[in-house]
Specification:
By secondary structure, the chain is an alpha+beta fold. The mean pLDDT is 80. It has helices at residues 4-8, 60-70, 77-80; strands spanning 12-19, 25-35, 42-46, 54-58. Helix content is 24%, strand content 35%. It is built from 3 helices and 4 strands. The termini are far apart. The longest helix has 11 residues, at 60-70. The chain has a 4-stranded antiparallel sheet.
Length: 82
């Protein structure tokens, strides 16, 4: 954490995960986790508390990569006109 902006950035996003139909998992962001200065733990700040399901901590980078992989690709004009 050499940069001041890194101190204000969460280490993890907290997601409430609920199982849906067809074995799909649905993620709802419920908070963040910040690393302690001494590197020995994290503080979790939740905006809401789920009553069922589970909470998963993911780095912001991991979640963005997953979202990009799941996005449907746009078809080009030739494919749409068929």
């Amino acid at each position: 954490m050499s940069d001041r902006s890194d101190k204000n950035r969460p280490s993890f996003d907290a997601f409430h995960v609920k199982e849906g139909a067809d074995d799909k998992s649905y993620f709802n962001r419920v908070g963040v986790a910040f690393a302690h200065r001494d590197g020995e733990g994290h503080t979790i700040q939740l905006d809401s508390v789920p009553v069922d399901g589970r909470i998963i901590l993911r780095t912001p980078k991991e979640r963005l990569e997953e979202a990009r992989e799941e996005k449907p690709r746009r078809r080009n004009r030739e494919q749409r006109d068929r």
